[in-house]
Amino acid sequence: MGSPTIRTLFIGGGTPSAVRLNMLEIFLHKLMDIIGKSPLESTIELNPESVTVKLLKILFNNGINRKSVGFQSLHDNILKTLGRNTNVKINLEALNIIQKYWRGSFSVDLINTVPGQTVNSAVDDINKIQNFDPDHISLYNLTFEPSTKLFSLLKSGKINRLNESIDLDMQTKSIDLLQLLGYERYEVSNFAKKGKQSLHNINYWEMGSYLGIGPSAASTLLSEKGPVRIEYKRSISNYVSDSTFNDRINFEYLDSDTFLLEHLMMGLRLKEGINIIKINNIFNMNIINFLKPLSTKWKDILIIDKESIYLSKNGLSFLNQFLIDIATLIDHAKTNLTNKEINWPILTAHF
Fold first, then answer.
1. pLDDT digits (tens, 9 = 90+) for 148-159
2. Which terminal Cβ of the chain has fewer Cβ within 10 Å, N or C?
3. CATH architecture of 8-203
């Protein structure tokens, strides 16, 4: 692969700021030495309870120019339900420190549709957060993942999902408010001021190559046999052991069916959708003809113009249901797609 050009860096998938500050500073300094030229965008994930003036200075002085902070809510009852190790007072203190001392870009994570949450409290979160002028807001709907405390509470009846009408009303009013405040919805769950979209995440959604490092980290790269997915095993002890590289990873070559589904799953998350010429060239296919069986059922949601395939504004709320139909369509068409040559247009490493 030679020496890749690293456009973006993302440090997260956990709580990097939980590391002692002196260790974090050494790590960042050595990392930037290895990378060489600073990436266009270098993001780190933080929890609000870890935000201090000293931390922000260490980050900025060591090449980090963007941070993403998981505030989730500015209501104590919601934070308690989510099991967060913070409260409204801590969150507001962190926001004040960031507003006063941070010199880079600033993204906020909020969560909607939490049991006990109201439409008014969701809207209130956005109104309060925007007073601190973040340039990017990620607004996620709560999902109940198996083997989590929230999932157990749901199964035991101690908490309940919001009913469908409240859920929809909360999403609609939250999205409308964000856009009214100048945050463009450029992806299903992501809103940004002009020019402040997450370059790193856009690379994921556009199916660019990426290199993941660390336990559980995944990569998608080009090989002589086509796209390959590499995943480090979850075990930290295995990762730091003297075992061979092959003993620390799982990898698979992605067939054209899987890769097409991933392109559609990721690309249709974006407001701009999927470039027709690009996907036709990658898969040696006519994507418009391929999707025709779905055009009647989804005629008010699926938009096809001269250059792109995308979902309507309201259609983005039905993305998951639409993708189920796409997966079924691809499954039925396997004899037409499997073993076709994939012309993934990333011939040089570019992250």
1. 899 999 999 999
2. N
3. 2-Layer Sandwich (3.30)
